[in-house]
Design goal:
The chain has twelve helices and ten strands. With 380 residues, it is an alpha+beta fold. The protein has three domains: 7-120, Butyryl-Coa Dehydrogenase, subunit A, domain 1; 122-230, Butyryl-CoA Dehydrogenase, subunit A, domain 2 (Beta Barrel); 233-377, Butyryl-CoA Dehydrogenase, subunit A, domain 3, CATH 1.20.140.10. The strands form three sheets. It has a four-stranded mixed sheet, with helices on one face. A four-stranded antiparallel sheet has the order 2-3-7-6, covered by helices on one side. Strands 9-10 form a two-stranded antiparallel ribbon. Strand 2 (140-144) and strand 3 (147-158) form a beta hairpin. Bound molecules: flavin-adenine dinucleotide (FAD). Residues 89, 93, 123-126, 131-132, 156-158, 202, 205, 210, 359, 362-366, 368-369, 372 line the site of flavin-adenine dinucleotide.
Length: 380
């Protein structure tokens, strides 16, 4: 494949980089410390047309491809994991499925405000007792007349407290296994019975709300079913194929951000009368940080490119996510080390990248699950 970025992609990358450095980086540690969702940043991203990058223009998006979207996610990740996580959950998990599986009416009603950045979106699969084994869910949707009635609890749902729509997975046919799961569009602000019961304190990413939600007799009209009844699991797999590319892009951004800090510091900091980058041990560390970041980016762009060609990407997206998330954690850990004692303080960014990067090995399927997916794809 051709790794030279098209001009349009470069332009978007530069615009977003400038925005991230000017508006997000200066407040990145403060919003983490305050556990504050930065609403104003998402309003500005909406003004830049960034809230629906890979969504068609017909429904308020930018009409870009997955490669362009990956570049944007990477740039945001380079300065803030929190903003990045809320951003990719909004697009890959909450918006893209409506574009892929919704009716024209659903797209007009639910996709347009997401793509235009009127409000955030969420996607609710995980439950207190089902994570990796996500299809083993307890949330149920029962038909009563021409309404669906949903009951259950969803766990660790990104953006739920800020969302204008949440896509909720529920069992509609308990005997049908994978074919008995469906997806519903829930309006957290208008639908009675929807409640955010917890916003978790986490080891990182605290400016991105991670919520437990309770659904108690939430009554929905039939037009809130996304796609066909029983399609929920198939939709989940397709959603995660795309979502994992965005986590890989975000991870690449975290790795790049951590590397940038470490490289600059290693050239400024002097010990024993010379910049620490002159010591082989430090130089080799920084070189390896660069190597891992570049590798993560190549795998991410390869997966994005294949997705844009309409090719199956289950293996490629899992591979990119597995590699880039590991790279982000390792590079961020090494960045803390390169900064020495200062790296351990919150005055410097590497500790934040380190804490944020860890989630990338857990969300949208843990690294162990990515191995399982890749092994299956390899016929093992
Ligand atoms: C910050 C954050 C944001 C999130 N956002 C969302 C969201 O927006 N929407 C949503 O639906 N979910 C979300 N999640 C949930 C996330 O996807 C799950 O936490 C993740 O899939 C793991 O599930 P679990 O936590 O139940 O762990 P478990 O599945 O209980 O896993 C525990 C450990 O067992 C291992 N394990 C489990 N099964 C296997 C196996 N078969 N082989 C080998 N090892 C195995 C796992 O790899 C892991 O190490 C989020 C989580 C966090 C922390």
């Amino acid at each position: 494949m051709d790794f030279e970025l098209p001009d349009e992609h470069r332009m978007i990358q530069e615009t977003v980089r400038e925005f991230c450095q000017g508006e997000i980086e200066p407040i990145a540690q403060e919003i983490e410390d305050d556990h504050r969702f930065p609403e104003e940043i998402f309003e500005q991203l909406a003004d830049l047309d960034m809230m629906g990058v890979p969504i068609s223009e017909e429904y308020g998006g930018l009409g870009g491809d997955t490669l362009m979207y990956s570049l944007v996610a990477e740039e945001i990740g380079r300065v803030s994991g929190s903003v990045g996580l809320s951003y990719v959950a909004h697009i890959s998990l909450a918006s893209k499925p409506i574009e892929l599986f919704g009716t024209p009416e659903q797209k007009e009603r639910w996709l347009r405000p997401l793509a235009e950045g009127e409000y955030m979106g969420g996607w609710a699969l995980t439950e207190p007792s089902s994570g990796s084994d996500a299809s083993d869910m307890d949330t149920v949707a029962e038909k009563e007349g021409d309404e669906w009635v949903i009951n259950g609890t969803k766990q660790f749902i990104t953006n739920a407290s800020e969302a204008g729509s949440v896509l909720v997975k529920a069992v509609t046919d308990p005997g049908a296994g994978y074919d008995g799961i469906s997806t519903f569009i829930v309006d957290p602000r208008e639908d009675d019975g929807f409640e955010v019961t917890t916003i978790w304190d986490k080891m990182g990413l605290n400016a991105s709300p991670t919520c437990e939600i309770q659904l108690e007799d939430v009554r929905l009209s039939e037009d809130r079913l996304l796609g066909e009844e029983g399609d929920g699991w198939d939709q989940t797999k397709k959603t995660l194929d795309g979502g994992r590319i965005s986590i890989a892009a975000l991870s690449t951004g975290l790795a790049q951000g951590a590397y940038d800090h470490a490289k600059a510091y290693s050239q400024e900091r002097e010990q024993f009368g010379q910049p620490i980058s002159q010591f082989d041990a430090v130089r080799d560390k920084v070189v390896d940080m660069h190597r891992k970041t570049e590798r993560a980016r190549l795998l991410t762009h390869q997966a994005a490119h294949r997705y844009d060609q309409g090719e199956p990407v289950t293996r490629e997206s899992a591979l990119a996510k597995l590699d880039a998330s590991e790279a982000a954690r390792e590079v961020a850990e090494d960045a803390v080390q390169v900064l020495g004692g200062y790296g351990y303080t919150t005055d410097f960014a590497p500790q934040r990248f380190y804490r944020d990067a860890k989630l990338m090995e857990i969300g949208e399927g843990t690294s162990e699950i990515q191995h399982l997916v890749i092994g299956r794809e390899l016929g093992l």
